Structure formats: C-alpha cells, structure tokens
Design the sequence.
C-alpha cells in the first residue's frame, strides 16, 4: 500500500466533487435528517384500552363512601393505562431531495481534502482476514484519530479484519454519506474507490 502524492491526487479528483464551497446550513439539515431516519422507536406504553383487566366496575356507583370508578385500568390506578405516554407509532422520518444530500456530501469531501483528512492510497494489499495486518497498515499512515475506510466494492476480507479495531470502520464508496463522513476524522480510500465515488454520485440525476 502506497499513499498518493498531492500531484497524483490532484490528477484523479473531480472538481465537481472535491471543489464545492461549504454551506454549513445545508450540511446541518442533511445530517439531522439522517440522524432522524436512523432513529429507532423503542419506548411504548399501553393506553387504558390495551392493559389487561378492568372489565368490571370495581364497586357500585353509590353508597360505599368511596370515589366513583368505572375501571381499575384507569390511568389514576396503579397498573392502569398511561396517559400521553410514548408510542411506537411515532414517525421520525425526514425526506430530503437527493440533490441536496449529494451536494452536502461533496462539501464534506472537499473539506476533508482541504484539511488533509482525505487519504488516497493505490490499493489495500490484504489477502487474508487478519486484524493485525490491517492495524499495521493503518498505523503506517500515522493517523491520529478515527478512520473510515471507503472500499470500491464489498471486500469481506478487509471488513472482517477491521471490525475489532477501535475507532476504525468500513463503508462501500457508493454508500458514502454525510453522517458517516462527519463521524470519522479521516477518510481513507483507494484510487478505484475515488473512481467509484465519481461514477456513483455524478451519474445520479
């Protein structure tokens, strides 16, 4: 594995992707929408109509000296339903036009390049699943921080070798997105990966 020089890097980078001026408002909008779309609705409470029991009136309406009640599953009873509790029917999805997502991604890739956080290598010479080899390869790049490796295709050897390394993750180049690019300090990609990025995102309408 060899890191490309700035001259070599400049030759393979498309200006339409790696020379896009930053618009922080757009990036913020895309990132928050992605976070909302990934949000899982887990909390769920039952209403008085869903909890078990309570079909019978607990005591007669008059003559007991007690307050009137129609069901032991009223929200004011222990074990009763919950009023205004969280429900799993909530929908946090946010639709954003594809062009906006793509432009925001280009802005972040441009920033990575400007800040020397985009590392382009000729290839990944990993023949077998070995965490030690990938760790050695990453250490040779002398990167101080989290690393996202963008693969030109689905490479199980690298994916399985990386998964036990802290603060290092993989993604296919065609699946690059704002949230993942922002989450990791460095983006490491091969020459073919750069071609895949251009092929994927510049061909979209």
Sequence:
């Amino acid at each position: 594995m060899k890191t490309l020089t700035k001259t070599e890097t400049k030759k393979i980078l498309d200006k339409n992707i790696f020379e896009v001026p930053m618009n922080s408002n757009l990036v913020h909008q895309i990132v928050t929408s992605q976070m909302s779309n990934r949000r899982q609705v887990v909390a769920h409470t039952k209403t008085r109509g869903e909890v078990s029991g309570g079909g019978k009136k607990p005591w007669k309406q008059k003559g007991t000296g007690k307050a009137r009640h129609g069901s032991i599953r009223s929200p004011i009873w222990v074990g009763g339903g919950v009023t205004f509790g969280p429900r799993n029917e909530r929908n946090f999805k946010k639709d954003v036009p594809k062009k906006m997502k793509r432009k925001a991604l280009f802005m972040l890739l441009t920033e990575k390049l400007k800040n020397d956080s985009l590392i382009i290598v000729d290839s990944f010479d990993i023949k077998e699943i070995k965490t030690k080899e990938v760790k050695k390869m990453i250490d040779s790049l002398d990167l101080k921080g989290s690393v996202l490796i963008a693969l030109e295709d689905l490479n199980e050897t690298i994916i399985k070798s990386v998964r036990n390394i802290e603060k290092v993750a993989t993604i296919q180049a065609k699946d690059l997105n704002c949230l993942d690019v922002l989450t990791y300090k460095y983006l490491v990609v091969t020459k073919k990966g750069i071609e895949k990025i251009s092929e994927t995102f510049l061909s979209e309408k």
In short: Helices lie at 6-12, 15-18, 24-38, 98-114, 131-140, 156-162, 178-183, 191-202. The longest strand covers residues 147-151. Strands lie at 118-121, 147-151, 168-172, 186-190.
